[in-house]
Structure formats: structure tokens, C-alpha cells
UniProtKB/TrEMBL annotation:
Similarity remark: In the N-terminal section; belongs to the PMEI family. In the C-terminal section; belongs to the pectinesterase family.
Keywords linked to the UniProt accession: Aspartyl esterase, Cell wall, Cell wall biogenesis/degradation, Hydrolase, Membrane, Secreted, Transmembrane, Transmembrane helix
Annotated protein name in UniProt: Pectinesterase
Location in or out of the cell: Secreted, Cell wall
PROSITE patterns recorded: PECTINESTERASE_2 (PS00503)
Positions of the catalytic residues: D398
Domain of life from the UniProt record: Eukaryota
Length: 574
């Protein structure tokens, strides 16, 4: 009887919580007669919009689209009008793009429009996820939706960034585009705020939720997926039966059969199927620019070792006159991407401006024993949930950057020699809204100097990072900080001249070792946060950061059979 009573109470609470997701306040539902005063609908919309950041935009947009007082209808309309506004901005931007002859700005527009498509997609799947609510996965539902809406917001800001970075024409186009996107951007931010409000309610009932959930697990990876992942973990690549194999003739250096691009085209055949497509890339240097597109889901890229199998490119923003996103040697735009025992490199020099080795725009993506090498903007951790383990990442300026929810664990972060007069920065995190679910966590890593870095020349400066965007959020946790790190720790944007983000960023350090572990010499910005073991730091530990207190939230890492710890470990001593 007691368990039955608890189940009934729990079900009632869960129904209440999903009601909060839909409207965050109960609005009594009853039919609206055609002659009923529209004031009742307006009042319901005002209550619905109360938690949002842009309340006036919310009320105006939703009240003009419906006369309903139904909570579920309001949340659906809220998402629909948001997507409609973004699509309107897209359509109008095409005419704007045609009026600009500048190739660089045109190139940026093309990428911008594609990102608005992705923003709409993330809104669509967020709405679908809420409408397919299952009481057994409520906390994970909230985490998924917040992850996708974070990306939806980020895409819109990235669109404007791309335009602004193409010169005078681009700056003018960005301002026009900003006006076109204003309503859509505000509405997207509003949806994120609404879902964010429910998190506290979910966590209030977390104990009861765990009892209701019991031992239930996520079904995202079926048994076949797990068997294949287990095979990858237990055997050498040579003994693995891959979906496709790429290799070079050791004498001629020509492809024996498939290129990596051709192998990825084959991966398109698995679209819609929840099975991995394993590409084994044998020892060699592959000079290709690779795009793992959104129709190539569940791709696994496996090499013979990060120094033996390397994918190499040299595209860059300065000399190729392309946007930063297109400079990437490898671009990943599909979910559940895994890379193991392979290297990614952009050989453009330190004077080439932005030159990305790999751009990762993949939810629940994982990199194990990989080398990611470049100079400026080496690893673009763009969006979604990402995990890097036992990797080496090298560069000069912001060589780990983006707006993902990323954990870089047990990796070597290698500082390379920059152009004279430039300062090196490890992390440039890109959170643009306070409610986004994004941050970069550097955990149990070693920051080291490359062999060519002039460690004795004090004119070369290196910092932990800088606040790239207004709400930039970074934690350096239990890592080794060498004496090449400047005692100030952190640098303003604009090589120390732009102080616009130092008040709103959140930059944390905890439990580090090495000559620069001390905090006494750090810059005294409002954005430099002091934390303790039981405070904010807990929210950044991978077990919480990824799963948001949900049993199955970080299961995608466990399923990959790679080393992983969800809590803290002692910092390396050298």
C-alpha cells in the first residue's frame, strides 16, 4: 500500500512538473466561446510570459497568434511563433545577401543561413521532446531541451559574428541582419528561460524521481550499438570489422580504395538507423577537408594512433578569405560522433589568423586518445555535449573555444609559439546568454610548453583564457599550471584592451597544482569567481555537468568504454 501510495503521489507531482514546463504556472483551461472577451486570453499569455527575459515580445507575439488559455497550446504557440520569426529572417536575408557583392560577406551569409536552419531544427526537436513526455525521463528531458535551446541561441549569435568578421560590408550586413533577427532571437532566448525555470522544480523532487525511475536506463543506444562499442574497446583496429576502411599505398601514397569523404558518403545509408558506422583510417597522412554532415549519424572514426593516422588541412581565414567555420580541417555536424586514436591538424601558421583543426557541432560527441593540433582556434567546440579524454590539444590563441558544454579531461594542453607581440590563451568560451547550459571544464589536465615555445623570453605571455563572450564560463579544475602562465591568470579580449565582458563572465579555478596554482596574483575582475569543494564546483563535475543529476545522463560516455571519472581526482604534479 505504501509503495502504491508513493507511486500515486509521485505521478501527481510529475504531472504538476510537466505542467510547469508547459506554462510554469497553472492556467485553468475551459472552452473559449467566440463572443468571450479576449482579455482572458491576454491575461493567460501575460502569466505565461512572466518568467521570460523579453516579456513584451513574448506577450505581443503569442497573443497575436492565439486566443487560447490552454497551457499546452501556449507553449506550442510560443515555439511555433519563434520558428516562424527565424524563417522570416532567413527569407529576408536572401535578398540582403544578393545586394552584397563582397565574396567574404557572401560566404558568411551562406553559413549564417545554414545556422538559422539548425536553430529552427533545435527548436523543433525541443518541442517534439516535450510533447513526447514520458514521466520516467523527466530530468533528462529537461537537460536535452536546455542543451538544444542553448545551441539554438548560439547559432543566431554565430551568424552575426561571421558577418561582422568580414570587414566593413559585413559589419553593415550584420547590423541589418540583427534587426531582421531581433524578434526571433528574443523569442528563442525566452524559450530557454522558460525551460530553465523548471529545473529547480525537477530537482526538488529528485529523490522521489529516483525512486520512481528505479533501475530504468536510457534506450538511446541499443544492444547492437553496445556490442560494437565493446568490440572497439577490446580489440585492435586491425582485428576490427569496420563499416569502411580507408588506407594509403605506403609507396605511392595514393588511396587504395576509398577516400575518407567517400567512406562518409556510405555512412549516409545508415541515416535513421540507430547503429554505428565505423570508419577505420589506417596509418598515413590524409590531406582532406572532411565534413561529417547531419545525415551521417553515429559515425565512429578510428585510426592507428594519433601520431600514425592524421587528417591534415591548412585552410585559414586570413589567406583563404573564408569564414572561421569553413577553415576547419574536419567539421562534425551530426550527433553521437566518436573519434579514437587519430590526429586532426591545421598546418596554417601562427600568422594565419583563425585556422580550425576540428569544428565539433555534435551532441554527445566523444574524443579519446586524439591529437588536435593547430595555432589559433584549434578546437572549435561549437555546441552541445562533448567529452575529450587522454587527448593532446595544441595552439596559441583561444585554442579551445566555442559554446559547447565540454569537458576536457586528463589531456595535455600544449602552448605553441605565437607571433611576436601576441599572447597565448588556452580557453575562449562563448556563452552569450545567462540561461544557456554551456561551459568549458578543463579537468586533470597538464598545460605544457611546446618544444619551440620560448619559455625564458618573458615578452611571451600565456594565460588560462579570456572571456570571449558576455557570459563566458570556464573552470580550470585539478590541473597542472606551469610557470609560463602569467600570474594574472586571465586576459581581457582585444589583447587586454577590451574590458566589456569582465563583469559578467564566470571564470573559476579550483584544486590546481604547479608553479601558477596560487590565486593571489590573479586579476580582480567581478567575473573571477571564488568557489569551494561543496559550492559551485559540484555543478561542473562531469557526473553532474553532463547528467544534471540524472542516472542515464552521462551513460553515453560509459557506453563508449573509455576511461572516465565523474568526480574529482588529485591534480597532476608535473
Amino acid at each position: 500500500m505504501e509503495s502504491k501510495r508513493a507511486a500515486v503521489i509521485g505521478s501527481c507531482i510529475l504531472v504538476l512538473v510537466i505542467g510547469v514546463i508547459c506554462a510554469f504556472v497553472y492556467v485553468k483551461t475551459r472552452p473559449i466561446h467566440q463572443n468571450e472577451d479576449a482579455a482572458k486570453s491576454l491575461k493567460a499569455v501575460e502569466v505565461f510570459c512572466e518568467p521570460t527575459r523579453y516579456k513584451e515580445t513574448c506577450v505581443r507575439s503569442i497573443s497575436s497568434a492565439t486566443n487560447s488559455t490552454n497551457a499546452t497550446e501556449l507553449i506550442n504557440v510560443g515555439f511555433q511563433v519563434t520558428m516562424k520569426e527565424i524563417k522570416i529572417a532567413q527569407e529576408k536575408s536572401i535578398a540582403l545577401q544578393k545586394a552584397i557583392a563582397d565574396p567574404a560577406t557572401t560566404d558568411a551569409f551562406e553559413t549564417c543561413v545554414s545556422y538559422l536552419d539548425k536553430s529552427v531544427y533545435d527548436l523543433e526537436r525541443s518541442l517534439a521532446r516535450m510533447n513526447s513526455f514520458d514521466k520516467d525521463d523527466l530530468p533528462l528531458l529537461v537537460d536535452d531541451v536546455k542543451t538544444w535551446l542553448t545551441a539554438a541561441v548560439s547559432y543566431q549569435h554565430t551568424c552575426l559574428d561571421l558577418l561582422e568578421n568580414t570587414g566593413e560590408n559585413g559589419e553593415k550586413a550584420a547590423e541589418q541582419m540583427r534587426q531582421l533577427m531581433k524578434v526571433g532571437s528574443e523569442l528563442t532566448t525566452n524559450t530557454l528561460r522558460m525551460v530553465d525555470q523548471v529545473t529547480g522544480v525537477v530537482e526538488d523532487f529528485s529523490g522521489l524521481n529516483r525512486r520512481l525511475l528505479g533501475e530504468s536506463e536510457s534506450n538511446e543506444l541499443d544492444d547492437y550499438w553496445r556490442r560494437r562499442l565493446d568490440q572497439v574497446a577490446r580489440t585492435t583496429p586491425q582485428n576490427l570489422i569496420p563499416s569502411a576502411t580507408v588506407e594509403l599505398d605506403p609507396k605511392t601514397k595514393k588511396y587504395v580504395n576509398l577516400t575518407i569523404k567517400a567512406a562518409l558518403i556510405l555512412a549516409n545509408k545508415t541515416r535513421g538507423r540507430n547503429v554505428p558506422f565505423i570508419i577505420y583510417v589506417k596509418k598515413g597522412e590524409y590531406h582532406e577537408n572532411i565534413e561529417v554532415r547531419d545525415n551521417m549519424r553515429n559515425v565512429m572514426l578510428i585510426g592507428d594512433g594519433p601520431t600514425e593516422t592524421k587528417i591534415i588541412g591548412n585552410r585559414n581565414r586570413k589567406f583563404d578569405n573564408i569564414n572561421i567555420d569553413k577553415s576547419a580541417t574536419v567539421s562534425v555536424d551530426t550527433d553521437h560522433f566518436i573519434a579514437k586514436d587519430i590526429g586532426f591538424e591545421n598546418t596554417a601558421g601562427p600568422d594565419a589568423d583563425a585556422a580550425v583543426a576540428i569544428r565539433v557541432n555534435s551532441d554527445r560527441s566523444l574524443f579519446y586518445n586524439c591529437h588536435i593540433d593547430g595555432n589559433q582556434d584549434t578546437l572549435y567546440a561549437q555546441n552541445y555535449r562533448q567529452f575529450y579524454r587522454d587527448c593532446s590539444i595544441s595552439g596559441t590563441i583561444d585554442f579551445i573555444f566555442g559554446d559547447a558544454r565540454a569537458v576536457v579531461q586528463n589531456c595535455n594542453l600544449v602552448i605553441r609559439k605565437p607571433v611576436q607581440g601576441q599572447s597565448c590563451t588556452v580557453v575562449g568560451q562563448g556563452r552569450v546568454e545567462p540561461d544557456q547550459k554551456s561551459a568549458t571544464v578543463v579537468q586533470n589536465c597538464r598545460i605544457v610548453a611546446d618544444a619551440n615555445y620560448p619559455v625564458k623570453d618573458k615578452s611571451y605571455k600565456t594565460y588560462l583564457g579570456r572571456p570571449w563572450k558576455q557570459y563566458s564560463t570556464t573552470l580550470i579544475l585539478d590541473s597542472f599550471l606551469p610557470d609560463i602562465i602569467d600570474p594574472a591568470g586571465w586576459l581581457e579580449m582585444g589583447n587586454g584592451k577590451d574590458k566589456s565582458n569582465i563583469n559578467t563572465c564566470s571564470l573559476y579555478e579550483l584544486g590546481n597544482s604547479g608553479p601558477r596554482k596560487g590565486l593571489s596574483g590573479r586579476v580582480k575582475w567581478p567575473g573571477i569567481k571564488r568557489i569551494d569543494d561543496k559550492g559551485v564546483a559540484e555543478n561542473f563535475l562531469p557526473s553532474v555537468f553532463f547528467k544534471s543529476r540524472v542516472r542515464s545522463g552521462d551513460k553515453w560516455i560509459y557506453d563508449a568504454k573509455v576511461p572516465y571519472h565523474g568526480g574529482r581526482e588529485k591534480a597532476p604534479t608535473s
